[in-house]
Design brief:
alpha/beta, TIM Barrel, two-stranded antiparallel sheet, 14% strand, globular
Length: 296
């Protein structure tokens, strides 16, 4: 099975306005990513705050991204959830809109047992003809996909990859050993390079929202075999990465994008804007990387 993408992808933020989605800013964010070399766009993932969107908004965001990107890079639509039938319907709709692949997070809150998890993904996979990225983020969902469970999921047609955000490198290595047919994408910016070294095909990055050129530089260097350069970029990004996760993501990210003049610092409850002290640290780290700031 071919990689959905190889290299650096962004888990893109969704800009909001008081009326709904800020479409002008969203278009600006998408174009910024394309121009800076990002190799795939993940829309309506965790960073995009889909849990606070209506169904209509979520589908409109996916549609807008597909139309704006216009085939220049793959667009991966986040269609997962803890209601299997709804996830199936959302996945079908994203396919009809023209998504290139789907990002399907493990069910949260329900505490799915292994049989239920397998049946959940099988039902979604049978509903579409698109490659599916399993999204494992136990820190948010309370459910970890073990390497053995992933091996079972890998037998389902259309399951093509995993976005692995457990931060457990031993688990990543075991996934690589048991599931050689699947692409592994890093979902944890703090360990992007180590996951690539464990056989990863790329990264799905929050940091790429603000430093896409450096994230692309990291993956390019790794795949070119210039590992010392890749390590240098990982270390260069480390202080900014820490700042972007000082509070729950995407709270610091929205602050950073606002400082860069790309969108308003607007989140939807229950998330609120970043504390002022943290914003000062974040601004300093952005400036240290030469990222232009436009905050008044």
């Amino acid at each position: 099975m071919q990689d959905i993408f190889r290299g650096s992808a962004v888990a893109i933020a969704t800009p909001f306005s008081p009326e709904g989605i800020d479409w002008e800013s969203f278009g600006r964010l998408l174009e910024f990513q394309i121009q800076e070399g990002t190799q795939a766009i993940i829309v309506a993932g965790t960073t995009g705050e889909p849990s606070t969107m209506s169904h209509e908004e979520k589908m409109a965001v996916i549609d807008f991204a597909i139309q704006k990107v216009a085939g220049r890079v793959p667009v991966v639509a986040g269609t997962g959830g803890n209601h299997t039938a709804q996830a199936m319907a959302d996945s079908r709709q994203a396919q009809a809109l023209g998504a290139d692949a789907l990002l399907v997070v493990t069910p949260y809150y329900n505490k799915a047992n292994p049989q239920g998890l397998l049946a959940h993904y099988r039902a979604i996979a049978e509903a579409v003809d698109l490659p599916i990225i399993v999204y494992n983020v136990p820190g948010r969902t309370g459910l970890n996909v073990t390497p053995q469970q992933l091996a079972a999921l890998a037998e389902i047609p259309h399951i093509a990859a995993i976005k692995e955000a457990s931060g457990d490198l031993q688990q990543v290595l075991e996934m690589r050993r048991l599931c050689p047919q699947l692409s592994i994408y890093s979902g944890t910016d703090q360990v992007n390079l180590p996951i690539l070294a464990c056989g990863g095909a790329g990264i799905i990055s929050v940091v790429a929202n603000v430093a896409p050129h450096l994230c692309r530089k990291l993956t390019d260097a790794f795949f070119a075999g210039t590992w010392e350069e890749a390590l240098a970029v990982q270390l260069q990004l480390a202080p900014l990465t820490r700042a972007l996760f000082m509070e729950t993501s995407p709270v610091p990210l929205k602050a950073a994008l606002s400082m860069m003049g790309l969108c308003e610092n607007r989140l939807r409850l229950p998330l609120a804007p970043m504390e002022e002290a943290g914003q000062k640290v974040l601004a300093a780290e952005l400036a240290a990387l030469g990222i232009p700031l436009h905050r008044a």
